[in-house]
Amino acid sequence: MTTATHPYDALMDITARPKAVFVRGAGSYLWDDGRKRYLDFVQGWAVNCLGHSPPGIADALAAQAKRLLTPSPAFYNEPSLKLAQALVANSAFDQVFFANSGAEANEGAIKLARKYGSLHKGGAFEIISFEGGFHGRTLATMSASGKKAFEPLFEPKVSGFKKAKLNDIASVEKLINANTVAVMLEPIQGESGVWPATDQFLKELRALTEAHGLLLIFDEIQTGMGRTGKLFHYEHTGISPDIMTLGKGIGGGVPLAALLATERASCFEHGDQGGTFNGNPIMCAAGLAVLEEVAKPDFLKQVAETGLLLESELQKVSARHGLGGVRGRGLLLALDLKLPIAPGIVAQAFEAGVLLNAPQVDTLRFMPALNVTRAEIAEMIDCLDAILTKAGAARRVA
Q: Name one Pfam family in it (predicted).
């Protein structure tokens, strides 16, 4: 399809998109080429942790672009060394490998676990993951995912992944055998509708993996970088995994991801892992700008407080309209609509100038910028409330 202004048909048609073309963003707002403004509570699926085009990231990118784009990953560069050190200093991990996407970081975590199994566990290679989990769109990460829609796609899948049930420790234990090397999960399953692993379950999982000499892998692509009110979600639990992956928010809008591991789990040898653009200076400069802001105690305190406010306002909306509960933590929340009306609400909100996300037909997901304001939350709630009021009136008439 082509309009007078934009030819759409040159892009592969891999998802349904509205015809608006976005040309500018600032903070919690986007503008399309018709100058219409949208309040964004999707933020690139939790990517723009500081909002659209924040000055700190823009300045860091511009400054680094004038100095050095990339010397190749065969050489050290200053921003990657600084960012790796800063991540290690702020976490429970000892080493970092940079990547371009969350899927690539998760693929690296799978490879690292299998390498560990080959070196230390007699060739063990199986990884236990979870029903409803989502780890990316490479063949291995799709195989690790528990997304039903992936099951018939791109067969044959990569073997070696068994699926347990979230928050059911017995379901994990019964899958462990001599070939098991690791357990991998999202602390909050985002794509399946924001379903959290309980803190107690994560503690039990840590104890179980330690008892069996298994690696524990946290996919914090969506929960990391302050999204849940701590710099990393595992900090809520009092335990730490052996391997963690970051993506989305770590670049604040540019393609950057990271694989972090403890010294014990860091077993790659020369030639095992790499990537042409991995750890390039310009992306790592953006990552440094993000981490400098998000790691501030006052910033994380604000995220936690704002998350509680958003949760409270969503609960009020739910009570007014007879909907279900609110799930999640911090500024990764979902509202259970109890009816398959989420796509229609998203479409109506878009027309009204508010961007929402429906990971499931009965669920709305909220992933605003971490510095979203109270006024912006109120604006979104008013829009959602009006749409639900209209929908409720229509159902009563019907």
A: Aminotran_3
